[in-house]
Amino acid sequence: MSATEHLVIFDTTLRDGEQSPGATMNKAEKLRIAKALEKLRVDVIEAGFAIASQGDFDAVKSIAETITESTVCSLARALDSDIDRAAEAIRPAERGRIHTFIATSPIHMKHKLQMEPAEVVEQAVRAVKRARSHVDDVEFSCEDAGRSELDFLCRIIEAAIDAGARTINIPDTVGYAIPEQFGETIRQIMNRVPNADKAVFSVHCHNDLGLAVANSLAAVTQGARQVECTINGLGERAGNAALEEIVMAVRTRQDLFNIDTRIDTQHIVPASRLVSTITGFPVQPNKAIVGANAFAHESGIHQDGVLKHRETYEIMRAQDVGWHTNSLVLGKHSGRNAFRTRLLELGIQFDTETELNEAFTRFKALADLKHEIFDEDLQAIASDTRQKEEEGPYGLVCMQVCSETGVVPRASLTISVEGKEHKVEAEGSGPVDATFKAIESLVDSGCNLQLYSVNAITSGTDAQGEVTVRLERGGRIVNGVGSDTDVIIASAKAYIEALNLISRGGIRQHPQVADV
C-alpha cells in the first residue's frame, strides 16, 4: 500500500513523549521502545530531537542503526545546524526522515520568533531545501497551526511543498482546537493549496482539552493520512493523541473510516506496559484500550449480556489488542537459555554477558519469591539491571524498617556514596516517610518530592510493587523507578535512582522554546 492508501502512524513517544516532566529515557531504554514500536509495525518512529543533547543524538543514531522495518525520523528546527545534526543522526537508517518546523501563529511569530510572516516563509523554504539536500523524505510542520491564520497556513504550506516537503503536518500544538473546526481547517487547506496533491497531510494534536484523539479523527475524515501520536497518550503537558485509541477507533469504525492502519494490534498492550515501566507513568485503570478495566465488567446486567453474546457490551476483542496473551512464561526451574530467549522475544538484549548474568541472577531471586513470572516482571528486571549499569554516586546496600501499631516507624539503611558505605537512621509518619528521611539525612539533596506512586506490576499478593518517585530541584524534574516484591525496598530504590538522575545534571534543549 502507498502512503495514501493507508493511515500512516507516526509515533513520537521517544520525542514528544519524552518531554513529559520526568519521562527522560536513556539510550538503551529508547532502543527497547523503538524495537517494540517496530514490532507493532509503526510506519514512522520519531526517535528524538538530535541537536537537543549528545544523549539524544546518540539515541537517534542507535535507533537508525537498528530499526529496519520503520522509517526513523529526527526533529529539527528550521535552522541549518539542527537539520545537519538530524541528518547525521539518521544517516545509518534504511529509511530516514527529517522533520523540520517553524511557528506560524501570530502570537508565536511576534513574541517567540520576533519575525515577520514573509521572513517565516523564507526560513521555512530554506529549511526544507536544506533537509532535502540530505534526504528525500522531509516533513514540514507549522507549529501552533491550531491558532494560525488560514490564509497564511495555505501560503507557507504551498511554499514548503514546492521546496520539497513530502509530508505536511498541521499540529494543534497547545490543544486549542475543537473537532468540527479542526476537521474543517484540514479540509480547507487541502482544497485551497494548489499543490496539495504532492504531499501527505498529517496532524499532531495535544490533549489540553481532552480532544486530541477526537481532533485527529476529525482530520482523518477530511483527508489527513498521517496521525502523530504516542503510546498511552504520553507527552507534553496533558499529552498527545493516544496511538492505541487512534488505531482501534479507525479499525472498529470501518463504516465511517474508509481506511485502516498497518498496526499489528496484538502488540498494543505489551508496548503500553513497556512504556509505562520505563517512564514510570502508570496507566490509569479506566484508560481506553490499555487500562486494566478496559475489558472488565462489574455491572450484573453487563456481565449477563457479555456471557450471552460478547458484542452486547464489547465493541472490540481483548485478545486483538494483546490482553491475555502474556501468560506464564518462566519459573524457578527455567534455565538461562530460556530466559535469554524470552527476553529477545520481548525486544530486550543486553550488550554483555555480564549484564545478562546480572539480570538472570535477579530473575532467579524473584522466582524464589514468586511462583509465576510474567513478561511485566521481566521488563522490570531488565529496567532494574540497566539502572544498576548506569547508576550514579548513590546505592542501596541494605535496609531494615520497623512499623508497628502504636510505635513511631523507624528506618535504618546502609547507603553507598561513591563506593563508601554509610549507615543512616530516621523516624517518620510511616515506613516510606522514615526511609526517605533517612536517605535525605545523608545526601541533603535539596530536592522537592513531587510525586510518589505505587503500582502492582502483575496480579496477586506476591506481585512486584513498582514505585515511582518524582523529584524536582532547580526547575529540573526526574522520575526514579524501583521494583521489588517489598514495596518499601522498591520505594528506597526509586528514591535513590531519582537522586542519581538528578545528580547527573545536563538539561535537554527544548525544541518549542528555543529561539529560531
Percent in helix: 25-40%
Could you say what the CATH architecture of the largest domain is? Alpha-Beta Barrel
**Arrangement of strands in the largest sheet:** 1-2-3-4-5-6-7-8
Our measurement of the CA-to-CA distance between the termini, rounded to an integer number of angstroms, reads 37 Å
In CATH terms, the superfamily of the largest domain is Aldolase class I
How much of the sequence lies in strands comes to 15-25%
DSSP helix count? 16
* Average pLDDT, all residues: 89
Number of strands: 14
Q: Oligomeric form of this entry?
A: single chain
Structural class: alpha/beta
Counting structural domains, the number is 3
Write down the CATH topology of the largest domain.
TIM Barrel
The major pleated sheet works out as: 8 strands, parallel, barrel
Described by the principal axes of the CA atoms, the overall outline is globular
The parts where pLDDT drops under 50 for at least 5 residues are none
Output the helix-strand order: EHEHEHEHHEHEHEHEHHHHHHEEEHEEEH
The level 1 CATH classification of the largest domain is Alpha Beta
Cofactor: Mn(2+)
Pfam families: HCS_D2, HMGL-like, LeuA_dimer
Binding site for Mn(2+): 16, 204, 206, 240
Domain Pyruvate carboxyltransferase: 7-269
